[in-house]
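Q: How would the C-alpha coordinates look for this protein?
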Amino acid sequence: MKSKLSVLVLVIVLTVLAATPIAAAPMASPCTPGASYNPACDVNQDGAITILDVQLTAGHWNRTGAFVSDNNHNHLGQTWTGSNNPMKIQGAFGAPDYTPLLLSNSTGHGLAVTSAAIDGIYVGTAGYYGLAVQHADKDGVLVVTAGSPSSSQVSADPNGFEVAGAQGNGLFVGRADYNGVYVSSAAFDGVSVASAGLAGLFVGFGGRRRRVRVPYGRRRRVRGRRAAMASKWSRPAILAYTPTQPRPVATGASTHPMQSTAVTCCSIPSPW
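A: Here is the predicted structure in C-alpha coordinate form.
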Protein backbone atom coordinates (compact mmCIF):
# COMPACT_ATOMS: atom_id res chain seq x y z
CA MET A 1 0.00 0.00 0.00
CA LYS A 2 2.83 2.34 0.88
CA SER A 3 4.66 1.65 -2.40
CA LYS A 4 1.46 2.29 -4.39
CA LEU A 5 1.08 5.67 -2.70
CA SER A 6 4.66 6.58 -3.56
CA VAL A 7 4.10 5.65 -7.21
CA LEU A 8 0.93 7.76 -7.30
CA VAL A 9 2.82 10.74 -5.90
CA LEU A 10 5.55 10.37 -8.55
CA VAL A 11 2.96 10.23 -11.34
CA ILE A 12 1.30 13.43 -10.10
CA VAL A 13 4.63 15.26 -9.85
CA LEU A 14 5.68 14.12 -13.34
CA THR A 15 2.37 15.34 -14.75
CA VAL A 16 2.92 18.77 -13.24
CA LEU A 17 6.52 19.01 -14.43
CA ALA A 18 5.57 18.02 -17.98
CA ALA A 19 3.30 21.03 -18.33
CA THR A 20 5.66 23.95 -17.59
CA PRO A 21 6.03 27.05 -19.83
CA ILE A 22 9.40 28.27 -21.14
CA ALA A 23 11.07 31.30 -19.50
CA ALA A 24 13.77 33.67 -20.75
CA ALA A 25 15.58 33.78 -17.40
CA PRO A 26 15.44 32.00 -14.03
CA MET A 27 12.29 33.03 -12.17
CA ALA A 28 11.63 33.62 -8.52
CA SER A 29 8.05 32.36 -8.92
CA PRO A 30 7.16 28.76 -7.93
CA CYS A 31 6.96 25.82 -10.33
CA THR A 32 3.65 26.00 -12.23
CA PRO A 33 1.90 23.71 -14.73
CA GLY A 34 2.98 24.06 -18.37
CA ALA A 35 4.21 22.21 -21.46
CA SER A 36 7.80 23.47 -21.68
CA TYR A 37 10.92 23.85 -19.58
CA ASN A 38 10.55 25.96 -16.46
CA PRO A 39 13.71 26.71 -14.45
CA ALA A 40 11.64 26.94 -11.28
CA CYS A 41 10.92 23.21 -11.65
CA ASP A 42 14.55 22.30 -12.36
CA VAL A 43 15.51 21.16 -8.86
CA ASN A 44 19.18 20.35 -9.51
CA GLN A 45 19.53 23.27 -11.99
CA ASP A 46 21.14 21.16 -14.73
CA GLY A 47 19.02 22.59 -17.55
CA ALA A 48 16.79 19.52 -17.82
CA ILE A 49 13.77 18.30 -15.88
CA THR A 50 14.16 14.55 -15.39
CA ILE A 51 13.38 11.81 -12.90
CA LEU A 52 16.29 13.07 -10.82
CA ASP A 53 14.39 16.27 -10.05
CA VAL A 54 11.37 14.21 -9.04
CA GLN A 55 13.48 11.99 -6.79
CA LEU A 56 15.11 14.99 -5.11
CA THR A 57 11.70 16.51 -4.45
CA ALA A 58 10.12 13.25 -3.26
CA GLY A 59 12.91 12.82 -0.73
CA HIS A 60 11.56 15.85 1.14
CA TRP A 61 7.95 14.73 0.99
CA ASN A 62 5.69 16.02 3.75
CA ARG A 63 8.31 18.44 5.15
CA THR A 64 7.64 22.10 5.98
CA GLY A 65 9.84 25.17 6.44
CA ALA A 66 10.50 28.77 5.35
CA PHE A 67 11.10 29.23 1.62
CA VAL A 68 14.39 30.96 0.77
CA SER A 69 15.23 31.80 -2.85
CA ASP A 70 18.74 31.33 -4.26
CA ASN A 71 20.83 34.02 -5.99
CA ASN A 72 21.15 32.12 -9.27
CA HIS A 73 19.10 34.70 -11.18
CA ASN A 74 19.04 38.39 -12.14
CA HIS A 75 16.50 41.06 -13.02
CA LEU A 76 18.39 42.80 -15.82
CA GLY A 77 16.13 44.28 -18.48
CA GLN A 78 13.07 44.12 -16.25
CA THR A 79 10.82 47.04 -15.36
CA TRP A 80 9.01 46.93 -12.04
CA THR A 81 5.93 49.08 -11.56
CA GLY A 82 4.38 49.47 -8.14
CA SER A 83 2.31 51.75 -5.96
CA ASN A 84 2.96 52.28 -2.25
CA ASN A 85 5.02 49.08 -2.10
CA PRO A 86 8.67 50.17 -2.19
CA MET A 87 11.63 47.83 -2.23
CA LYS A 88 13.27 47.88 1.20
CA ILE A 89 16.79 46.79 2.15
CA GLN A 90 17.33 46.55 5.89
CA GLY A 91 20.05 45.11 8.06
CA ALA A 92 23.56 45.78 9.35
CA PHE A 93 26.18 46.19 6.62
CA GLY A 94 29.71 46.80 7.89
CA ALA A 95 33.18 46.23 6.49
CA PRO A 96 34.40 46.22 3.86
CA ASP A 97 31.71 48.11 1.89
CA TYR A 98 29.59 49.73 4.62
CA THR A 99 26.55 49.87 2.35
CA PRO A 100 23.44 47.79 1.60
CA LEU A 101 23.65 48.75 -2.09
CA LEU A 102 26.93 48.82 -4.04
CA LEU A 103 26.94 50.17 -7.60
CA SER A 104 29.68 50.38 -10.23
CA ASN A 105 29.52 51.72 -13.77
CA SER A 106 32.57 52.31 -15.96
CA THR A 107 30.69 54.12 -18.76
CA GLY A 108 27.92 56.20 -17.17
CA HIS A 109 26.21 57.37 -13.99
CA GLY A 110 26.52 55.50 -10.74
CA LEU A 111 22.88 56.26 -9.90
CA ALA A 112 20.33 58.17 -11.98
CA VAL A 113 17.02 59.61 -10.79
CA THR A 114 15.07 60.58 -13.91
CA SER A 115 12.16 62.11 -12.02
CA ALA A 116 11.08 62.71 -8.42
CA ALA A 117 7.97 64.47 -7.16
CA ILE A 118 9.74 65.58 -3.97
CA ASP A 119 13.48 65.18 -3.25
CA GLY A 120 15.86 63.62 -5.75
CA ILE A 121 17.85 62.14 -2.86
CA TYR A 122 16.60 62.34 0.72
CA VAL A 123 18.71 61.64 3.81
CA GLY A 124 16.62 61.34 6.95
CA THR A 125 19.59 61.09 9.32
CA ALA A 126 23.29 60.29 8.99
CA GLY A 127 25.80 59.28 11.65
CA TYR A 128 28.58 61.03 9.75
CA TYR A 129 28.12 63.06 6.56
CA GLY A 130 24.78 63.68 4.87
CA LEU A 131 26.62 63.67 1.54
CA ALA A 132 30.23 62.54 1.12
CA VAL A 133 32.26 62.85 -2.08
CA GLN A 134 35.60 61.04 -1.79
CA HIS A 135 36.89 62.30 -5.14
CA ALA A 136 35.53 64.03 -8.24
CA ASP A 137 37.47 64.90 -11.37
CA LYS A 138 35.15 67.87 -11.93
CA ASP A 139 32.87 69.49 -9.34
CA GLY A 140 32.19 67.82 -6.04
CA VAL A 141 28.61 69.10 -6.23
CA LEU A 142 27.11 70.84 -9.28
CA VAL A 143 23.78 72.67 -9.33
CA VAL A 144 23.02 73.59 -12.94
CA THR A 145 19.89 75.60 -12.14
CA ALA A 146 17.87 76.24 -9.00
CA GLY A 147 14.48 77.71 -9.76
CA SER A 148 14.39 79.83 -12.93
CA PRO A 149 17.49 82.05 -12.95
CA SER A 150 17.81 84.93 -15.39
CA SER A 151 21.03 83.34 -16.67
CA SER A 152 23.51 80.62 -15.77
CA GLN A 153 27.20 79.99 -16.26
CA VAL A 154 29.06 76.71 -15.75
CA SER A 155 32.65 77.07 -14.61
CA ALA A 156 35.43 75.21 -16.40
CA ASP A 157 37.32 74.77 -13.12
CA PRO A 158 36.90 71.74 -10.86
CA ASN A 159 35.04 73.35 -7.95
CA GLY A 160 34.13 71.82 -4.64
CA PHE A 161 30.62 73.28 -4.83
CA GLU A 162 29.26 75.03 -7.92
CA VAL A 163 25.98 76.77 -8.63
CA ALA A 164 25.70 77.65 -12.31
CA GLY A 165 22.47 79.58 -11.86
CA ALA A 166 20.04 80.28 -9.03
CA GLN A 167 16.83 82.27 -8.99
CA GLY A 168 17.38 83.10 -5.33
CA ASN A 169 20.67 82.91 -3.43
CA GLY A 170 23.54 80.86 -4.79
CA LEU A 171 24.35 79.90 -1.20
CA PHE A 172 22.01 80.60 1.70
CA VAL A 173 22.82 80.07 5.37
CA GLY A 174 19.79 80.58 7.60
CA ARG A 175 21.74 80.31 10.83
CA ALA A 176 25.28 79.34 11.80
CA ASP A 177 26.42 79.24 15.44
CA TYR A 178 29.99 79.82 14.25
CA ASN A 179 30.88 81.30 10.86
CA GLY A 180 28.33 81.59 8.09
CA VAL A 181 31.11 80.92 5.54
CA TYR A 182 34.64 80.05 6.63
CA VAL A 183 37.75 80.04 4.41
CA SER A 184 40.67 78.26 6.06
CA SER A 185 43.18 79.03 3.31
CA ALA A 186 43.16 80.58 -0.15
CA ALA A 187 46.01 80.98 -2.65
CA PHE A 188 44.36 84.11 -4.04
CA ASP A 189 41.38 86.05 -2.64
CA GLY A 190 39.56 84.72 0.37
CA VAL A 191 36.36 86.09 -1.13
CA SER A 192 36.27 87.27 -4.73
CA VAL A 193 33.38 89.18 -6.29
CA ALA A 194 33.74 89.67 -10.05
CA SER A 195 30.62 91.82 -10.35
CA ALA A 196 27.83 93.00 -8.07
CA GLY A 197 24.75 95.12 -8.71
CA LEU A 198 24.96 96.61 -5.21
CA ALA A 199 27.48 95.94 -2.44
CA GLY A 200 30.37 93.62 -3.13
CA LEU A 201 30.17 92.49 0.48
CA PHE A 202 27.34 93.38 2.84
CA VAL A 203 27.09 92.69 6.55
CA GLY A 204 23.65 93.58 7.90
CA PHE A 205 24.49 93.33 11.60
CA GLY A 206 27.21 91.91 13.78
CA GLY A 207 28.08 93.10 17.26
CA ARG A 208 29.20 96.75 17.20
CA ARG A 209 29.03 97.94 13.60
CA ARG A 210 30.82 100.65 11.72
CA ARG A 211 30.31 101.56 8.10
CA VAL A 212 33.23 101.56 5.69
CA ARG A 213 32.60 103.23 2.37
CA VAL A 214 34.93 102.62 -0.55
CA PRO A 215 34.56 105.43 -3.12
CA TYR A 216 33.86 104.49 -6.71
CA GLY A 217 37.00 103.84 -8.75
CA ARG A 218 39.34 103.89 -5.74
CA ARG A 219 40.86 101.22 -3.55
CA ARG A 220 42.14 101.34 -0.02
CA ARG A 221 42.95 98.98 2.82
CA VAL A 222 40.31 98.37 5.47
CA ARG A 223 41.69 96.73 8.63
CA GLY A 224 44.44 95.05 6.64
CA ARG A 225 42.08 93.70 3.96
CA ARG A 226 41.86 95.02 0.42
CA ALA A 227 38.41 96.22 -0.54
CA ALA A 228 37.32 97.26 -4.01
CA MET A 229 34.21 99.13 -5.07
CA ALA A 230 31.81 96.65 -6.66
CA SER A 231 29.55 99.16 -8.43
CA LYS A 232 28.80 102.86 -8.85
CA TRP A 233 25.78 102.69 -6.56
CA SER A 234 25.75 104.98 -3.55
CA ARG A 235 25.50 102.04 -1.12
CA PRO A 236 28.78 101.07 0.57
CA ALA A 237 30.88 98.31 -0.99
CA ILE A 238 31.72 96.95 2.48
CA LEU A 239 29.91 97.11 5.78
CA ALA A 240 32.43 96.05 8.40
CA TYR A 241 32.08 95.70 12.17
CA THR A 242 34.19 95.26 15.25
CA PRO A 243 32.98 92.33 17.36
CA THR A 244 32.29 92.96 21.04
CA GLN A 245 33.69 89.58 22.11
CA PRO A 246 36.00 86.91 20.67
CA ARG A 247 34.33 84.32 18.51
CA PRO A 248 34.29 80.74 19.84
CA VAL A 249 37.02 78.28 18.96
CA ALA A 250 35.89 74.80 17.90
CA THR A 251 38.40 71.97 17.79
CA GLY A 252 38.02 68.26 17.31
CA ALA A 253 38.61 65.32 15.02
CA SER A 254 36.15 63.32 12.95
CA THR A 255 37.05 59.85 11.67
CA HIS A 256 34.87 58.42 8.93
CA PRO A 257 34.71 54.60 8.76
CA MET A 258 35.70 54.70 5.07
CA GLN A 259 38.81 56.80 5.77
CA SER A 260 42.08 55.30 6.91
CA THR A 261 43.24 58.43 8.76
CA ALA A 262 41.52 60.97 10.96
CA VAL A 263 40.45 64.26 9.45
CA THR A 264 40.89 67.27 11.72
CA CYS A 265 37.83 69.49 11.64
CA CYS A 266 37.23 73.06 12.45
CA SER A 267 40.42 74.15 14.25
CA ILE A 268 39.72 77.91 14.17
CA PRO A 269 41.98 80.20 16.23
CA SER A 270 40.46 83.58 17.07
CA PRO A 271 42.16 86.48 15.24
CA TRP A 272 40.94 89.04 17.78
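Residues 16-27, 214-252, 260-272 have pLDDT under 50 and may be disordered.

DSSP finds two helices and eight strands in the chain.

Upvote if useful.
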